[in-house]
Amino acid sequence: MAMAYGEWLREQRKRQGLTQQELANSAIMTRSHIAHIEAGRRWPSEDDAKRLDIALNTGNVLSSFLPATHGRPVGSHFEAARQLEQQACMLREFALSYVPGILQTKSYANAVLKVGFPPLGEKERDQAAVTRLERSLLLDDPATPMVWAMLDEAVLRRPIGGPAAMAEQLTHLADLVECERIRVHVVPFAVGAHPLLQNMLTLMWFEDQPPVAYVEGLHTGRLHDSPELVERFQGAYDLALGDALPLRESLAMLRATAQDFGHEDD
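The structure corresponding to this sequence follows.
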């Protein structure tokens, strides 16, 4: 379905003699996102599809034929960041308390969503988990985006969802590392204070626009595109990364901790 959608978009673009960049300029999108949609690797957001329809004068075809989503809208503070996340060629995540959303398993995501306030009903929580898992589909592409996840050791140790859910989640991360789809670096407790200790952070790079940073707290989040501020966030990330464990040592910790949680569940 995604491939057919992308092929139709490509056909309409070429029929009008537009390059990907020209269509991207007209639809207020990035060229890389247009390329991913045409290749069947991404779906446009509803707003993107509407702008594509306007740019190509295709009525509401691209908007109407988006797949029905079984998920739930994300928080208003995250919507812009979610759209950019799908367009990025590189993502660097820092997680202080729990595994980043695009890397979460279903059981783990449900456990995270279960403790929110105000509490969600079971149906709404399931829908929210589906939405979160749909974001992880960007990992189906074997190369893009490149994903680095820097995790405070607390992320590995806090038993969110219980031993079985944690064992599954950490094994999922380790598997992604071993197949070279992502990099994970753990910042051990022994480091003490480090530059990212106060917030969760996502850095995003793109093929054809400047990088941005997204900082999130409790029910709040802010997208930053100021070059000076993004550079400061990048510097803080680099400093913390310098104190993190190397990839192989981080992988060993993921495997060992998953095994420990697995034994607890026996």
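The two ends are 42 Å apart (CA to CA).
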